[in-house]
Automatic annotation (TrEMBL):
Pfam families: OSCP. Its main location: membrane. Keywords: ATP synthesis, Cell membrane, CF(1), Hydrogen ion transport, Ion transport, Membrane, Transport. The gene is atpH. This is ATP synthase subunit delta. Gene3D superfamilies: N-terminal domain of the delta subunit of the F1F0-ATP synthase. It comes from Loigolactobacillus binensis. The lineage of its organism: Bacteria, Bacillati, Bacillota, Bacilli, Lactobacillales. It is a peripheral membrane protein.
Amino acid sequence: MALDKYTIGQRYGTALFDLATEQGTVDTVFADVMALQQVFADTPTLGSVLTNATLTLEQKQPILTSLQQGATVSVKNLLQMVFDYGRMNEMPFILAAFVQRYDQVNGIVHAKVTSAVPLTSEQQQALSTQLATRLGAKQIEIKNTVDETVIGGLIVEANNLVIDGSIRKRLAQVQQLLLG
């Protein structure tokens, strides 16, 4: 039975995190993973190119070598193993699983905050402090999205939790009360 990309990502990403923890190189490996995530985000077809059978090994090797350049031994070995097993399409999932594990261990929560206008840095800091307390996190990283239909207030999405404090929602509630 073939494994899906998410399962493969979880297995390899967790294994890389556990190895980095054992070797005491988590932060260095994290930096490499973030750099690789950016490369795969900038070049979405990279995994397909390195997995595709139309290119020869000699044509693929320079690309792999450039990905490995400057990386820690653990990341170089991961790249080589994933390449050898023909799973380069799964690299974004592997990298995401590593980052997810890193965030979990370090108490980092990513929150998507939707507002009618962009939040100032002071507002983001205050919200981050409140969310950290509410969610029991050490650090909250906020990604602010502007949606004028919110009218006012905020919609916060973090840790599978949605807090809708928007005026749009309150108006909808008032409408429901009036319509009975």
